[in-house]
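Morning!

This is the sequence you dropped in the shared folder:
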Amino acid sequence: MDFKKELLKYLRYWPWFVLSLIVFVGAAFIFLKITPSTYETSATILFDKKQEDKTKIITISTAEKSSEDNLEDEIRLITSNEFLLDVVKKLNLNFTYFEKVYTVQNNMVNEVPFALIPTVAKDSLPEVTYEIKVNRDGFTVTNPETEQTYNVKGYASNEKVNGLPFKIQLSAKAKKNPALYFESEYKVVLQPTATALKNLKESLFVLADEKAKGVIELNHVSSSPDRSRKILNEIIVLLDRSIVLNKQKVFRNTVSYLNQRIKNFSKEKDSIESVKEKYLQNNDIGVMDNYIVEQTADRSQKKESSSNNEKQISLASIALNDIRQAGPTQTLGTGYNLDSPSVNQMLVNYNARILDSQLILERAQKNNPAYISLMTQLKVQKQELLNTLEGYLNFLNQNSRANRAEQSIVDAKVKSIPTKDKVLGNINSNLSLKEETYVALLQKREEAVLNGAILESNLKTLNAPETNYSAIFPQPKVFMLGSFLFALLVPFGITYLRLYFDTKVHNEEDIEKVLSNIPILGHIPQIKTNDKLDNTATSRSMIAEASRALVSNVSYLLPRKKESKGNVILYTSSIQGEGKSFCAFHNAITISNLNKKVLLIGVDLRNPQLHDYFSIDRRAAGLSDFLANKTDNWKEFLQKDTNFSDSLDVLFAGETPPNPSQLITNSNFETLIEEARELYDYIILDTAPVQIVSDTLNFSHLADVTVFVVKYDYTDKSNLVQANNFIKKEQLKNVGILINGVNMKTAYGYGYGASYGYKYQEMQAKKPWYKKGLKIKEA
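The structure's back. Tokens below.
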């Protein structure tokens, strides 16, 4: 990319850049002067979450416990409407005071020599501005919107003024010397509470510090640093007070809750104790451990007694069986270990009589009356022993049945011990839990009372409110630099879009992109109307020099001929108005001034233009008359004009015929060209545009060189595409491009300047100041 060429494109529009700079930079300067500077005031506070946890009466530890740096609740509190509404009321933000310095800017002030007392609720205040001035008689209040003026008499007026939503009084400080304020003029802006709250929320920014845990940064943006500091200080004070009040409320609720729970637990504990008492009474239990020991011992005793009774039954049965089986003279056993003394004694007595009977037998016979009497007694005694032993056995059997019943009862009691122990254990556990909770609640209540007595906020101010006096809006350097860049960007953007959507031909590159293999023959400068004909042999004008360069370049395209016949140069273009007639005219004059015989023919029968350069009547006879009547001699229609050159003959187009295409394609025109070749060195044809009509294409093969005229800032690039198609189809042959109407002052991309080809003194005098010193590339 040729940056110099690109730069020259935009330098053409330098006045627009200068105008844009003046407008935008000037507007920025005025804006900086009339706009009050806005400053940012900041404060940093810390919420000590660890201290807060230590002062909590009841702490709940869960896996989802919020981290220490979670400050969403605190931020939500600070930015809540209810909290900020207290700030609005405390600082009376419904009123904003300004001191008028000059008409376009006011300075916000925090202290004024008067006090305003609203006569309506602050929520109902109108959103209006008043201008207030202190004078000798009192106050003058003006509404700038309605231009209505209110005069308040006296400095301590308590009367309501109709139309004003407030009373006004002089402040205590100003009463000492009111004259100090006579020259000052103030402005007060009234806002309802809702509007003041909205403005406060818009200017307040609350952010959590990501690097420091528990730290919140408060920022307030305002044109009054003092007011911002007051707002932030008030927020910190109210926040600290709110934290304490919230904690006090929490502690009060906690103590109330604890008292209620203590009362409820006391009732529940008494109820459980009553249940335990009834249970012990119903189950005949004094102490559960003793009860277990007693029941276990009783069961053991019952088992032992039952075992002894069964043993006696067995022994008694054996004894009874032995006695029954014993003979009359057989002694009975006495080792049965019966627990019946009477039975044992009877056995001893029976055995003693047996011994007595044996002694009698030793001395007498069995028929001895004494022996018989003794045996009879033994028989009676044995029967009594059996009866007694049977009675004893019956007694033992009765005891056995009674023991089994008692044993069943004792076993049932012993088996019920685990159940009773479990029930009693649950009662004791529940009672113990209630007692522990009761004691814990009493302890928590004491802690709550103590913590409530020494309650303090966990809020700490790390950095008091400080104002950064580097204005955040508008920033002069940034604003001026931005306006400067914007002032350049706007015309640059407009110019860029204009050039981007511009389809006209402005330089050789535009042509070479479409007609890459077609040479550029020259550039005809744009000249004034008065200079159109300044092309004599000795002329030093730009048009004369450009025409001479064109002749030189065309000569290189002319084919080398063995025969000494004239050369035919055809001038054409895409559409009308591109200056082909103008270029053909000057080319003919330039060649004729080189002592060459030249014939200039106006072949554009539809819109002839050559007659204007020779001041000839358009209806003068010419080519159309010859073509229409073959018997005529075309030489009769030639005209000479010695004002330019004695070697130049002109054949004008003549009257506009109704059928120009038919005339131009008959053999008369070709015959004319062949004859002219013999008489002239050059035949120059001014033809019709090839994109509008096909006249030129019908005889273009007669030309040795075709000069295709393209006009600077006029010819559309799409026309070049059509011309390129003609060239490819060889409908136009040996073509060269001539750029016409180049503006030497505004052209870019050619390397032009005021000096064209050669640096002539008279041209340099017209050189623009902004191009002086630029090195210009020759065409």
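Headline: Residues 95-190 form one domain.

More detail when I'm at my desk.
O.
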